Amino acid sequence: MLDTRIEHLILSMLGIILIGTTGYVFIENVGWFDAFYMTSITLATVGFQEVWQMSDLGHLWTIFIMFSGIGLFFLIAGHIAQRAVDLKRYRRFRMAKQVKQLNDHFILCGYGRMGQSIARELTAAGKVFVVIEKEPEKISVMMREDLVFIEGDATHDDILIQAGVERAKTLIGVLKDDQDNLFVTLSARSLKKDLFILTRATNLTSIWKMQRAGANKVINPYEAAGVKLARQAMAPGVVDFIELIMNRGNLDLVLETISIKSDSRAVGKSMIDLEVRKNYNIIITAVEQRTGEANFNPDPNYKFEPNDKLIALGAVENLERFEKLCESVL
User: Fold this and answer.
1) What is the model's pLDDT at position 69?
2) I need a surface site. Which of 177, 254, 261, 325 has the fewest CB within 10 A?
3) Is residue 233 part of a domain?
4) Could you give the CA distance from residue 161 to residue 130 in angstroms, rounded to a whole number?
5) Are residues 31 and 131 in the same domain?
6) Distances (CA, A) of 159 to 64, 133, 153, 238, 295
7) What is the mean pLDDT of residues 45-57?
8) What does 105-153 look like in DSSP terms, one character per residue?
9) Three-class DSSP category at 186
């Protein structure tokens, strides 16, 4: 809806048309249609010739209409421009307010083809995330999709801080250039030491640089796609089953990573002690110990240790209940 001021400006324009038309009728003694036509082409400043042989008083009236219309036009244009600026400021304020309320969220740097695919997966999984993007056309797409985003350059510390990097759980860097992803990794790691950073590298020589910069995991999309194609060719049924599980929109059965906090009630307890299958109806498929050693199909008597990472399979609500057990007591 138009606000009151612009409604008044539009009514003023209609008023000028009415006054101009009436003035021509009485000053030049012409018909109403000719007077309206002359008023219209004067306000539009299209440069058409006069409809009739005009008197000096008619010329003065034309000048009055012309400058009145131009002045009012600039007022309307200026108000619309101000409204656009105010709307942009309001959008930034609203986004900043939403981001300030986020904790343990994901930060997605870049909204290209890979970024959009990641955003869809995070949305399907019910994860809370904020996107950082600087290109206007991609920002327009995110606005249509009603995503939470920060407009700016992800390589700048202040933009990462606006995205709540100090409260975030994971940062995903999928910018166009490896150099930009490297800068994002360096900045994010300096701002939060325990942030999980996942980034991509299209150049194989960039992988070790990003790891040295602080990335926890670096993915080469071409290599990953090649591995997936090879596995699909060798064991299509297995790959399809895993993807079916990971696609949360199809099944209420998901794989989840659950961390054992140092002061949680699960520390020092085994799957038998906690009666994992009976109380939570989930399956612990693997345990990644803090040493980095992976223990697949762990012994039911294995005692969970602080910072162990469990790969669990089960229904979403059951996994959430078990995750609360593994969180800090306080």
Assistant:
1) 77
2) 177
3) no
4) 12
5) no
6) 51, 10, 7, 42, 39
7) 73
8) -EEEE--SHHHHHHHHHHHHTT--EEEEE--HHHHHHHHHTT--EEES-
9) helix
Ranges of beta strands (E only) in 149-224 are 149-151, 170-173, 196-200, 217-219
Question: Is the same domain home to 274 and 206?
Answer: no
Same domain? For 108 and 65 the reply is: no
Q: Is the pTM for the entire model greater than 0.85?
A: no
Q: What is the CATH number of the domain that holds 315?
A: 3.30.70.1450
CATH number of the CATH domain containing 78: 1.10.287.70
**Rounded Cα–Cα distance for residues 39 and 23 (Å):** 9
Do 202 and 124 lie in a common domain?
Answer: yes
The range of the structural domain enclosing residue 110 comes to 102-219
Distance between CA atoms of 53 and 34, rounded to whole angstroms?
Answer: 12
Boundary-marking domain end, from 170, 204, 219: 219
Given pLDDT bands bounded at 50, 70 and 90, which one contains residue 61?
confident
Query: In the structure encoding, which two tokens stand for residue 76, read together?
Result: 């309307």
- Looking at residue 244, its pLDDT comes to 62
Asked if residue 238 is part of any domain, the answer here is no
Tell me: do 278 and 308 sit in the same domain: yes
Give the single-character DSSP code of 84: H
Mean pLDDT of the 76-94 span: 70
Q: Kindly state whether residues 87 and 107 are assigned to the same domain.
A: no
What's the mean pLDDT when you consider all of the chain?
Answer: 83
pLDDT tens sequence across 227-255: 767 776 776 766 666 666 666 555 566 77
pLDDT of residue 1: 46
pLDDT tens per residue across span 140-151: 898 888 888 988
CA pair distance 108, 118, nearest whole angstrom? 8
Report the alpha-carbon distance of residue 183 to residue 188 in Å, rounded: 8
Domain-located, residue 174: yes
Residue 242 pLDDT: 66
Residue 277 and residue 299 in one domain: yes
Q: Is residue 224 part of a domain?
A: no
pLDDT value at 38 more than 60? yes
